[in-house]
Design goal:
CATH architecture of the largest domain: 3-Layer(aba) Sandwich
Distance between the termini: 109 Å
Number of domains: 4
Number of helices: 27
Length: 721
């Protein structure tokens, strides 16, 4: 009886809910209790996928990583498409060094729920799998730097002028069996490579990207995915003696700055560049102040390292040669490779009238195709129309095709005050090639009244479409149009009015000009440009390499600060290009505080001109990112000897750090920064930084004057000079 009552009591007692108990332990951060309860629950409910994930968390919190990985793997086995289970498994496998398995898990995550973090980790792991030594490529190899092209295409669905040029030359180089062409896409896609190394893209992938980006229908998501895939598949390469690096695009920034190539230059790699114009230094009034600052320094840096330069026009070549002579520079071998007369790789026969200009269709009109900015001198054309309209001339409508650019407030004020010339002026932008063809084909003539150009592509496009053109007689524009264009002085409105009057009112003259274009115009094709460009590159492949020996003088401060829009003393900077005196693959661009260093581990070197083994006192100042004050900095010298570790809050207000080191075998100061501790990343900024370099200098211990000058220059606000 008693036994039966006990049995009944035991059966009636509620069973323990180990799932709930595990959750209670988890919430109380009782991780051993959670493991015990979840394990008991899963013994009877092995298909509870969510609890396998929770068990993995509980093991991980106790540092039991293998056990945690097993639990996460069970969760993934039960639901292979669960992104949470896969991401937890992937993170853990990566910590355990099981990289191939981690990569597979991240790829599953990105397949089910594409996200930036998964893509980031996939790229990191793919790079980890290629972490061996870089391949050295020397004699005869021509490396084209196209990281700025890829960066542009990630942000824009269509290519602009410079990108079209890069694409055209790249296509020709890939298809030319006489050139060993390779393409480098930066040195810091995810891992920052040592100075002098780059990520090299596969030629076939570069070809596919350019072909797709040049097509009529481009899906930007697809294009970006193609670029990311190409970067993921890139391999490490180190250009070596006998090779050539060509800067095809923006040598003043966008990951293509001269500093990225200093180590290669010191390794006897030949450096060439394709220069479009130097307008920011010859005509800064037409440019954004920040661009003027960056370009002014970059063109000086290019002149310090370039072994040869190609330009897109004789005018650009003459302007650059004059700039070098004016600033006392060495002569640089230069030749001209003129651009094609049309933007796209082949003349597109498609014609499609743009909906933006439906009110113009069927009317008489004149077209000006160009970015609408002060340098392009649109106001000149508007004032010609105003004067002719005031005289009663039956003018055509006026069409501007282009995005709004810099310094056009005066133009916009006039258009607002005149109601767009009483409705006779129309503005369109982002037209397709077919739409632009239609606009050119049906215009009476085109206009290009720019003050200064590096080439003048719209003039060539007008001629290609068989349409007369009135253009400025300045800089490179006559090189494009030859005798087939009617020229005006962009500073002389009265002269221009008469030339425009004749083209508008004298139909027989206008038709005669059109016939002359059809009979005499021979367009330069992209095949011509590519062949000419590569021919000149081959010509310079055996030319002498000009040594780059710039060094930091003892007792002088190398400041890395650059205030956007500040005026650069070009003559001084031309001879002491301070940004490229420091060699590193771990620096972001210059800002007003200095340069942020990439990640928590970074290194740099500075050529001193001192004999190897010379004892040196190094003085430096750093910047500390907000939130990084509690991190700890350890500085190592070239022999990997560590200085005393310091907390960043001790030096974050510009305090001068002094340390002792020795000049290396080539006379360089080599330092490595190692920061430990957590620090935040910033919304909207994909850079990774916690410490920056503001200024640096050095002196031998017995040079008391140099030491004092360094300390005073770094620590005092000097009002005596």
């Amino acid at each position: 009886m008693e036994h039966g009552m006990l049995s009944k009591f035991m059966n009636d007692r509620p069973k323990i809910n180990y799932r709930r108990k595990g959750n209670q332990c988890r919430d109380a951060r009782d991780w051993p209790g959670a493991v015990s309860a979840y394990t008991r629950h899963l013994e009877e409910n092995s298909g509870d996928q969510a609890i396998w994930v929770q068990l993995g968390h509980a093991w991980k919190e106790q540092g039991m990583l293998e056990e945690a990985a097993q639990a996460y793997q069970m969760a993934v086995d039960l639901d292979v498409d669960d992104p949470d289970a896969n991401i937890h498994l992937a993170d853990l496998l990566r910590r355990l060094g099981r990289l191939e398995e981690a990569l597979a898990a991240y790829q599953r995550v990105n397949k089910v729920a594409p996200n930036a973090e998964a893509i980031h980790n996939i790229r990191l792991l793919r790079k980890d799998s290629k972490a061996g030594a870089a391949e050295a490529m020397g004699d005869g190899t021509v490396f084209f730097a196209i990281q700025d092209l890829f960066g542009y295409l990630k942000a824009h669905v269509t290519m602009s002028g410079i990108q079209r040029v890069q694409a055209g030359i790249a296509l020709h180089a890939i298809r030319d069996e006489g050139v060993n062409a390779r393409f480098i896409v930066g040195n810091a896609l995810e891992h920052v490579l040592p100075a002098g190394e780059f990520w090299m893209a596969d030629n076939a992938e570069v070809l596919r990207i350019i072909d797709y980006a040049s097509g009529k229908q481009v899906d930007h998501d697809v294009l970006r995915a193609m670029i990311v895939s190409c970067e993921n598949d890139a391999v490490r390469v180190r250009p070596s003696r006998g090779s050539t690096i060509i800067l095809l695009g923006a040598f003043w920034g966008l990951g293509n700055s001269i500093r990225e190539f200093i180590r290669s230059k010191r390794d006897d790699v030949r450096i060439g560049a394709y220069v479009y114009d130097i307008i920011p230094v010859t005509h800064p009034e037409f440019c954004d102040e920040a661009l003027v600052t960056d370009f002014s320094m970059a063109i000086c840096e290019l002149c310090a390292v370039a072994d040869f330069i190609l330009t897109i026009s004789d005018a650009s070549r003459f302007a650059l040669a004059e700039f070098i002579t004016k600033n006392g520079g060495r002569p640089i071998p230069m030749q001209t490779v003129p651009l094609a007369h049309h933007l796209t790789q082949s003349a597109d026969d498609a014609v499609e009238w743009p909906d933006q200009l439906r009110q113009v269709k069927g009317k008489r009109y004149v077209v000006y195709v160009s970015t609408i900015e002060a340098r392009k001198n649109h106001l000149y054309v508007v004032n010609v129309w105003r004067r002719l309209m005031a005289e009663g001339v039956d003018v055509p409508d006026l069409v501007f095709v282009g995005r709004h650019g810099w310094k056009i407030s005066g133009l916009m004020d006039v258009l607002k005050a005149t109601n767009n010339l009483n409705g006779r002026l129309h503005i369109a932008h982002n037209l397709s090639d077919g739409e632009l063809n239609a606009v050119y084909a049906n215009c009476e003539f085109s206009v290009f009244t720019s003050f200064v150009e590096g080439w003048g592509l719209p003039v060539g496009e007008s001629l290609l479409h068989g349409r007369p053109c009135i253009a400025s007689d300045t800089s490179s524009i006559p090189e494009v149009g030859g005798d087939l264009v009617d020229y005006i002085d962009p500073f002389n409105l009265t002269q221009g009015v008469e030339i425009f009057r004749r083209m508008i009112t004298d139909k027989s003259y206008r038709n005669a000009r059109a016939r002359m274009i059809r009979d005499q115009f021979v367009p330069t094709t992209w095949q011509d440009v590519g062949s000419n460009f590569l021919g000149k590159v081959k010509f310079y492949q055996n030319a002498d390499i000009i040594p780059f020996r710039a060094s930091l003088e003892e007792g002088k401060v190398l400041s890395l600060r650059t205030k956007a829009g500040s005026t650069i003393d070009i003559k001084s900077y031309f001879h002491i290009p301070r940004r490229i005196l420091i060699e590193s693959a771990h620096l972001y661009g210059s800002e007003d505080h200095g340069v942020w260093m990439k990640g928590s581990k970074s290194s740099f070197s500075i050529l001193t001109g001192m004999a190897a083994g010379t004892s040196l006192l190094v003085y430096l100042q750093v910047s500390v990112a907000p939130g990084g004050e509690d991190c700890v900095l350890t500085i190592f010298n070239a022999d990997n000897d560590a200085m005393r570790a310091i907390r960043l809050r001790e030096v974050g207000m510009g305090q001068v750090i002094r340390l002792m080191t020795q000049a290396g075998g080539d006379g360089t100061i080599q330092l490595r920064f190692d920061v430990t501790g957590s620090y935040p990343r910033y919304d909207g900024d994909n850079r990774d930084f916690v410490i920056g370099l503001r200024s640096i200098g050095y002196a031998t211990p017995d040079n008391l004057v140099a030491r004092q000058e360094l300390y005073e220059a770094m620590s005092l606000v000097d009002l005596t000079s």
